[in-house]
């Protein structure tokens, strides 16, 4: 079993846990009584809690709302699109027209998703001189991970570059594929020929269409039908793209609303539409007998059948490995984040793809104290598990990132929620954490800067009476410039369910089922309330205002939130 | 360990590199260390795998050839191996330099054959980074990942699996966690 690593998760206040929920998998829908807002404690095991707890690193902080913001209460805005393989930016206009895949030469192996590289099928030249360089020769896409090659599906390329454009023209097996432009041409030719009325159904046109040309044929057929059926357009618009016109829209709306507006018109025209009846019009007859597929399955076997994850990557839902095609890389985005309530930007990356710098980055790490957990004594058991019913002490270290000292109040329920309630006591629930200082001050102070160390000494002397290094009630354990450690005493609950009746908690009496997953993890909900006086002038006026001592306006700030301390696993006896 | 090294475990260089006496560094003249880099025991760095194919750029200065270039505050854990990648190009086989920027952590037992590793990259234990892979800044590679050859991993990615796939994104607040100055200071010479 992996070693347990203590963790601290912070609850984003955006989530409302007041709605009573019942435990997933629990037998009885225990009606949770709605309690008063102030008395309600946070239950980290509630199914909803999973969606509101985040490590501090994942949280942002809105300076205008003075509140924590989690990934659920920010809005994402796309700054740019880029290909994760070639790292080229793709303008959003071409994302709209070409789709969200790289249109250069970036492809993933259809078998294993590793990147494909282009290589020549020609044998390497004998010498290095220019006279040996080969101009002709075909190229294939190779996977260096699973050694798949596009030769297996019969695709060979003429050029080593612009693979996307080349692949769009080749079917699996090497047959050419019609491009949309060519398709249109063929359609027009057919239409001209069709004017004579010599239309032979069931001839060469009964071909199998790929998804793209199928869609294209259907679309052009119905567009034609629409423009034919409403010759002048409902509102005087001619145009062969009848269904983008407002007239057509009102007609379609009329079909659904059956109002007086479009009803009569639609009735007049509905009769003139006909359905597609060949491949060039987009008709595809689904093969009713699967005998072909069954025969192929028999011959190709398990190895020749595409796996579910392989099929999911493909747009055309192939069944066999030989139908798979190289997958163009999905584009990735850079996103900026906005607060949902006040719309201020919380994080904004540089718009250039290769730059990793942030223009704005308001992370909660710089605003709320981080809480580190450490066992006070080394765990007695070699497994690192907590011994049940044995008082164990933990050190919580609050480190303050703010440049103002912060008063911290912490509170926990006396028993952790859940079936196995462990007793929790915070020995010092109220303390003050010193202000953070500049990196420069720190560096100078450490290298023998007298003023810094002197100040530090004076402060530590003043607080020496606070009982350093003693686990005593009401006293902090240790403190530094911008951090304070306090002791939390925990009596882990026994995980036995066969104990005497009078020792059992109410939850245990109600539910005597076996130990569920992660029920042995001791999680302590802690309510943290911070109070500090922020320098308002310094925040708004920047460097100029900070010098002006008289006008300095101090504003009292308060922030309160729940967090969950994962302390350890309780040993099962 | 019965035999205790007579001196410290690490040799400290002028630029502050801490190189374990029990590491195997081959071809030291072809290796550049930016400074404040930790190389733990049993690490293998193959500086002898030099580029033999002539450079396409004739203007490139003909100084001492470089096989492995490492930036500042890198941390190579026990038993990892850095090997410049090699390939067959126009009929001849040649190695190409392996470049590693600053604040790169490589976990124990990992094998690195990348072409380029950006700064602030965390590579877990028992990872294989294939030939000519390019890893950009702020990337986390989880334990046991196999990064296939020629793969490009863009910035702010979390990568896992065999073959490697991008499984997540680095959050804004996680950026500070990649700094390895603390890890460097924590390495004592005893």
TrEMBL record, chain A:
InterPro entries: DCTN4 (IPR008603). The keyword Phosphoprotein applies. GO terms for cellular component: dynactin complex; stress fiber. Residues 186-206, 452-464 have a biased composition (Basic and acidic residues). It comes from the Eukaryota. Keywords: Acetylation, Coiled coil, Cytoplasm, Cytoskeleton, Isopeptide bond, Phosphoprotein, Ubl conjugation. It is found in: Cytoplasm, Cytoskeleton, Microtubule organizing center, Centrosome; Cytoplasm, Cytoskeleton, Stress fiber; Cytoplasm, Myofibril. Its main location: cytoplasm. Residues 25-44, 186-208, 442-472 are annotated as: Disordered. Subunit of dynactin, a multiprotein complex part of a tripartite complex with dynein and a adapter, such as BICDL1, BICD2 or HOOK3. The dynactin complex is built around ACTR1A/ACTB filament and consists of an actin-related filament composed of a shoulder domain, a pointed end and a barbed end. Its length is defined by its flexible shoulder domain. The soulder is composed of 2 DCTN1 subunits, 4 DCTN2 and 2 DCTN3. The 4 DCNT2 (via N-terminus) bind the ACTR1A filament and act as molecular rulers to determine the length. The pointed end is important for binding dynein-dynactin cargo adapters. PANTHER family: DYNACTIN P62 SUBUNIT, DYNACTIN SUBUNIT 4. Belongs to the dynactin subunit 4 family. This is Dynactin subunit 4. It comes from Oidiodendron maius (strain Zn).
From TrEMBL, chain B:
It is found in: Cytoplasm, Cytoskeleton. Keywords: Cytoplasm, Cytoskeleton. The keyword Cytoplasm applies. Pfam families: DCTN5. One of its GO terms (cellular component) is dynactin complex. PANTHER family: DYNACTIN SUBUNIT 5. Belongs to the dynactin subunits 5/6 family. Dynactin subunit 5 subfamily. This is Dynactin subunit 5. It comes from Oidiodendron maius (strain Zn).
């Amino acid at each position: 079993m992996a070693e347990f690593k203590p963790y601290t998760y912070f609850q984003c206040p955006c989530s409302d846990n007041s709605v009573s929920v019942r435990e997933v998998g629990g037998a009885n829908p225990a009606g949770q009584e709605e309690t008063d807002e102030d008395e309600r404690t946070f239950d980290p095991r509630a199914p909803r809690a999973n969606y509101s707890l985040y490590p501090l690193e994942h949280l942002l902080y809105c300076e205008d709302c003075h509140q924590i913001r989690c990934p659920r209460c920010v809005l994402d805005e796309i700054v740019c699109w880029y290909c994760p393989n070639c790292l080229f930016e793709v303008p959003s206009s071409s994302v709209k027209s070409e789709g969200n895949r790289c249109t250069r030469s970036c492809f993933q192996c259809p078998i294993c998703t590793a990147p494909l590289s282009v290589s020549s099928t020609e044998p390497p030249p004998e010498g290095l001189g220019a006279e040996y360089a080969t101009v002709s020769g075909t190229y294939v896409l190779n996977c260096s991970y699973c050694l798949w090659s596009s030769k297996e599906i019969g695709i060979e390329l003429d050029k080593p570059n612009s693979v996307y454009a080349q692949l769009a023209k080749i079917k699996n097996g090497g047959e050419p594929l019609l491009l949309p432009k060519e398709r249109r041409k063929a359609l027009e030719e057919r239409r001209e020929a069709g004017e004579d009325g010599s239309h032979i159904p069931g001839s060469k046109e009964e071909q199998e269409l790929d998804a793209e040309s199928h869609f294209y044929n259907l679309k052009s057929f119905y567009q034609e039908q629409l423009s034919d059926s409403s010759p002048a357009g409902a509102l005087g618009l001619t145009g062969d793209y009848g269904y983008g016109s407002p007239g057509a829209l009102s007609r379609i709306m009329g079909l659904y609303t059956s109002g007086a507006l479009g009803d009569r018109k639609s009735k007049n025209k509905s009769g003139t539409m006909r359905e597609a009846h060949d491949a060039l019009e987009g008709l595809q007859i689904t093969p009713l007998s699967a005998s072909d597929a069954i025969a192929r399955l028999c011959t190709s076997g398990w190895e020749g059948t595409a796996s579910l994850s392989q099929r999911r990557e493909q747009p055309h839902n192939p069944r066999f490995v030989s139908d798979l095609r190289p997958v163009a890389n999905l584009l990735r985005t850079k996103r900026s984040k906005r607060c949902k309530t006040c719309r201020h930007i919380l994080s904004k990356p540089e718009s250039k793809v290769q730059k990793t710098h942030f223009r704005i980055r308001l992370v909660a790490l710089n605003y709320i104290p981080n809480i580190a957990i450490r066992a006070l004594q080394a765990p007695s058991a070699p497994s690192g598990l907590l011994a049940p019913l044995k008082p164990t002490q933990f050190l919580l270290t609050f480190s303050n990132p703010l440049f103002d000292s912060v008063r911290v109040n912490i509170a926990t329920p006396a028993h952790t929620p859940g079936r196995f309630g462990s007793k929790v006591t915070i020995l010092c629930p109220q303390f003050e954490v010193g202000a953070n200082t500049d990196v420069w001050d720190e560096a100078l102070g450490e290298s023998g800067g007298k003023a810094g160390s002197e100040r530090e000494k004076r402060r530590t002397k003043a607080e020496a009476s606070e009982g350093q290094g003693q686990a005593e009630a009401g006293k902090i354990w240790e403190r530094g410039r911008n951090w304070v450690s306090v002791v939390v005493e925990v009596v882990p609950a026994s995980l036995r369910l066969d104990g005497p009746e009078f020792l059992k908690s109410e939850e245990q009496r109600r539910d005597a089922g076996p130990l569920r997953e992660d029920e042995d993890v001791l999680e302590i909900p802690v309510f943290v309330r911070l109070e500090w006086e922020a320098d308002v002038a310094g925040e708004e006026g920047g460097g100029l205002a900070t010098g002006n001592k008289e006008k300095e306006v101090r504003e009292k700030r308060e922030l309160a939130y729940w967090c969950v301390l994962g302390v350890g696993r309780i040993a099962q006896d | 360990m019965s035999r205790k090294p007579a001196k410290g475990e690490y040799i400290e260089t002028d630029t502050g590199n801490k190189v374990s006496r029990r590491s195997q560094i081959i071809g030291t003249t072809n290796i550049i260390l930016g400074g404040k880099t930790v190389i733990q025991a049993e690490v293998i760095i193959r500086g002898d795998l030099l580029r033999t194919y002539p450079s396409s750029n004739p203007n490139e200065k003909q100084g001492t050839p470089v096989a492995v270039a490492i930036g500042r505050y890198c941390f190579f854990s026990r038993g990892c191996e850095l090997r410049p990648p090699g390939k067959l190009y126009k009929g001849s086989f040649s190695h190409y330099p392996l470049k590693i920027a600053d604040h790169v952590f490589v976990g124990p037992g990992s094998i690195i054959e990348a072409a380029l590793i950006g700064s602030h990259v965390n590579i877990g234990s028992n990872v294989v980074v294939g030939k000519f892979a390019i890893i950009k800044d702020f990337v986390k590679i989880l334990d046991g990942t196999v990064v296939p050859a020629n793969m490009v991993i863009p910035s702010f990615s979390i990568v896992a699996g065999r073959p490697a796939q991008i499984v997540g994104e680095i959050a804004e607040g996680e950026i500070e966690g990649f700094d390895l100055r603390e890890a460097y200071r924590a390495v004592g010479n005893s």
